[in-house]
Design brief:
This protein has 522 residues and is an alpha+beta fold. Helix content is 28%, strand content 25%.
């Protein structure tokens, strides 16, 4: 009999199967010899006491059939995957973009026996990685192959977080199971905050590509959608690179949050879009050991088993109603130049699977309402982002970072800084935050820093470095769609993922794609 044993508390120093069996035997009140460990269902770190950390674990164990389950421990029943029936479609569906949403849309179609045509404006992940490294070392930006564009999407060069706020865990679990199928470690299926890291993500992307191609899908790289064919209020096809037309009665738009030229094109074609609020700000970087000390305390700051520490801070200015949030926190990671257009500067955070970098970073971003765009144009949020990115580029000669021994003074005016050896060495520059961000961004950050400094003085200290600008936290455009995931005014068109304006992050974008394909095939 397989039983679920919930709420086991295991001291982090004793983590392991031996201790799991011991704890389970005490709960079941039977000998350890009569228990066989089967699997972990969930595992999270309890740091409520700095004197003793625990893992809170749920596991499945096998017990003798004769075991009298008087306490009514839940019986574990392995889920049986439903067989999917093949669907007949008149034309092969088209997918625009091969990031998380595009990949999972393709996988879902393949599962139904349908062979999609996929068009990705960037390059394969191997070639893309070469371009990214070239940009980091030589500052040679390829606008179509960079941190934002290319196979795998922007998520391939990130921390690879897989936890999300989507309500239907069935789809989130399916996404995690799929990643495991294509090479992710099994622990992402049970840890409380799973992540993959850039190195593992890139390997998984290649495995997914191979799977799709082997089953008849087609993937075209260096293939940007430059126009759409719309007839009688229905999407009928796409134009690639200005000269190649492909027809289809089902088109999935998996554009990503940075396809600004494509958003302009679909707006001009009359596809209904609207403004959406975003968050903008900076990145803050600390030595990982400082964050570990803040979060873990003296006893566990160097404990090897629990990894680099996460953190999450929020602050809301009640007078203005604006919030400041930490976003995309990267333990043991690094800050990267994530620009996709020449003459503009945007940063992001990333990490590898080991999260072993000596530094940790996070975005510190401020709520921006659509009223802040000062225009009713649906694309005004994009212009809002671009204005900040241009000013950040001009201020730092391509990149800037500020030793934050006094973040408060920095936000109030300008500080002369020397860029360190790990960034583009441009000599001393003078950066004035008030010339880069709108005043409300600076004022809100300043208030938040003053508040956090009281509770976390090490966080707001000379251990920190500010980097900017952080503008691509989400898409500033929403492509209006129905509950069936179809464009509200163009039939056969299904906007999905971050570029649709309805999701944020790898897991929610992938789940969004699965649900959209299900709806489109009904």
């Amino acid at each position: 009999m397989d039983l679920i044993i919930n709420n086991l508390r295991i001291p982090v120093e004793k983590d392991g199967v031996v201790e799991y069996i011991k704890a389970a035997s005490q709960k079941l009140n039977i000998s350890e010899d009569n228990i066989k460990f089967t699997k972990i269902l969930s595992k999270s770190l309890d740091m409520s006491s700095k004197e003793q950390f625990y893992y809170e674990i749920s596991i499945v164990v096998s017990t003798p059939d004769s075991f009298d389950n008087r306490e009514n421990f839940p019986v574990y029943i392995e889920k049986i995957k439903a067989e999917k029936k093949s669907k007949n479609v008149a034309e092969r569906p088209i997918i625009i973009g091969f990031g998380p949403a595009g990949m999972f849309a393709a996988l879902e179609l393949i599962d139904h026996g349908i062979k999609p045509l996929i068009f990705e404006r960037g390059k394969k992940i191997e070639e893309r990685s070469i371009d990214v490294q070239s940009f980091i070392k030589e500052r040679a930006l390829d606008p179509e192959s960079n941190i934002q564009f290319g196979e795998g999407g922007a998520g391939s060069y990130s921390d690879g977080k897989l936890f999300s706020k989507i309500k239907n865990s069935q789809y989130a679990n399916k996404v995690l199971d799929t990643f495991i199928k294509f090479g992710a470690p099994e622990e992402i299926g049970y840890v409380s905050k799973p992540h993959l890291g850039t190195d593992v993500l890139c390997r998984i992307v290649k495995n997914i590509r191979t799977y799709i191609l082997e089953r008849g899908g087609e993937i075209h790289y260096n293939s940007k959608m430059t126009d759409m064919v719309i007839s009688d209020g229905k999407a009928a096809g796409v134009v690639i690179n200005g000269n190649m037309e492909y027809r289809s009665s089902i088109i999935y738009l998996a554009l990503g949050h940075s396809a600004r030229d494509t958003f302009e094109m679909i707006h001009n074609k009359g596809i209904a879009i609207e403004q959406k609020p975003i968050f903008v700000g900076v990145r803050v970087e600390h030595p990982a050991e400082i964050i570990n000390l803040i979060r873990y305390g003296n006893k566990y700051k160097d404990f090897p088993g629990i990894g680099a520490a996460n953190y999450s801070f929020t602050y809301t200015n009640r007078k203005t109603g604006r919030g400041v949030y930490t976003f995309c926190m990267c333990p043991g990671g690094e800050v990267i130049n994530a620009s996709s257009e020449n003459g503009m500067l945007v940063v992001n955070g990333m990490s590898y699977s080991s999260r072993s970098s000596a530094f940790s970073n996070s975005a510190l971003v401020v709520t921006c309402h659509t009223d802040d765009y000062r225009s009713t144009d649906p694309l005004a949020g994009i212009e809002f982002q671009k204005d900040i990115e241009r000013k950040a580029f001009d201020a730092g000669g391509g990149r800037w970072e500020v030793p934050a021994q006094n973040l408060v003074d920095f936000l109030c005016g300008s500080i002369s800084v020397d860029l360190n050896e790990n960034s583009y060495k441009m000599g001393a520059v003078s950066v004035n935050m008030n010339e880069i961000f709108p005043t409300f961004v600076n004022e809100t950050l300043l208030t938040a820093f003053n508040k956090w400094k009281e509770a976390y003085p090490l966080f707001i200290s000379n251990h920190a470095i500010l980097l900017g600008a952080e503008t691509r936290t989400s898409c500033p455009v929403r492509i209006k769609r129905s509950e069936k995931y179809e464009s509200v005014n163009i039939k056969n068109l299904y906007p999905i993922g971050e570029g649709s304006g309805y999701t944020g992050g790898i897991t929610s974008s992938a789940a969004d794609a699965i649900k959209a394909v299900e709806c489109s095939l009904r």
